[in-house]
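LAB NOTEBOOK - FOLDING QUEUE
OPERATOR: T.R.
BATCH SIZE: 2
PURPOSE: Compare the predicted C-alpha cell outputs for two unrelated chains run back to back under identical settings.
PRIORITY: normal
REVIEWER: second-year student, initials M.K.

ITEM 1
FIELD SEQUENCE / FIELD STRUCTURE:
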Amino acid sequence: MEKPSLIIGTDHGGFELKEAVVAHLKSNGYEVEDIGCYSTESVDYPDYANRVASAVVSGEKDLGILCCTTGIGMSVAANRFPGIQAAVVTDADLAAKTRVHNNTNVLCLAGRWNHVDHSYHDPTG
C-alpha cells in the first residue's frame, strides 16, 4: 500500500515537536514536505495553518500535520477551510480514532503536551 503524501507546518511553539515528528516519519519511509517554521523565533501560526490546509484541500497532499503550543490555534485556523477536518490529539490512540471515525485530514499537535519528552510543561513555573 502506498503511503499518503504529507505536509507539516508549525509555529515557534511547536518547532521542537515538529522536528521530532519529521524525523520519525522519515525514518519510517514517509515523504514529508516541511514548510517550517525552522526555529523557535516567533512567527504567526495562521500562515502555516493556511499553507497546510490549502495543500490538503487542493489535493496536492493527502494529509497534513500542524503543531503549535496547544494545537488549538492551528486546529481553529485549519478548520476554516471547507473540506478540512482538523483535530487536536494528544496520543496515538486518539489520532487513530479521529482519523477513522471523523475522517480527519489534518492532525494538530500540542508542543507543550506532546513534547519530545512527553511531559506537560507548566508555563507558570
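ITEM 2
FIELD SEQUENCE / FIELD STRUCTURE:
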Amino acid sequence: MSFNIAIDGPAGAGKSTIAKQLAKKLNFIYVDTGAMYRALAYYFLTRQISITSVEEVAKVVEEAKVEIAYENNKQQVILNGENVTNYLREENVGEAASVTSAYGCVRNHLLNLQQDLAAKKDVIMDGRDIGTCVLPEAPLKIYLTASSHTRAKRRYDELIQKGEHPDFDEIEAGIKERDERDMNREIAPLKQAEDAILVDSSSMTIEEVVQTIYKLAKERM
C-alpha cells in the first residue's frame, strides 16, 4: 500500500524545494502539481486563449496532455509530447496558472492523473488543495506557510540571481493578491486541512523544515 504526503500552502512558501528534498530523503516520487497547472497555463497562453474566459479554456483544456517524467533524477513536465519545464517559472505563466487553476474544468482534467499516481506509488505532492481535495486520505498532511514579506524576499533574491532587476514591493503585492485569489476562489480554495500540521518556515532554514517533516513522516510510516 502506498504512503502519501500532502504539502499545501501559499505561493512562495517553499513547498517545491522542501518536497523535492523530502522525496530524495524518503525515496518517494515527487509530484509538483503546481507545475502541472503551470503547464496548462502555458498551453493557454501559447494558444492565445483568454484565460479570464472559462468557456474558452473549457473548449481546449481536454486537448492538453500533461505528464510527469524524470531525467537524471529531475522532474520534467511534458505537454503534448514537448518538454516545457524551462518555461514554467515565468511570471506570466504563474499568474495565468493562479487564474485558471480556479476553473473546475482545469482541476478535473488533472485530478484523475494525480490520484491514480498516488494510489500506486509512495508520493509527495505539493500544491494548494492536496490535503483537502486531491489526497484527502493522505496519512501526513502539511500546511507550509511563511509571511508575505519572507516569501517576497525569497522570490526577489531568486530573480536577482538570474540577473533581473525586480521591484520588491511589486513582488510582495503580487503575492498578497495571489493569496487572496487562491483563498477565496469558489472551487477548491487554499486552506489548511483540519488534520494538517502547520509549519511556518519564516524563520527556519530549508534543512530545518525538511527535518521537521521527515520526522513526522517516519512517525507515521
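REVIEWER COMMENT (ITEM 2): The chain is about 50% helix and 15% strand.
FOLLOW-UP: none requested
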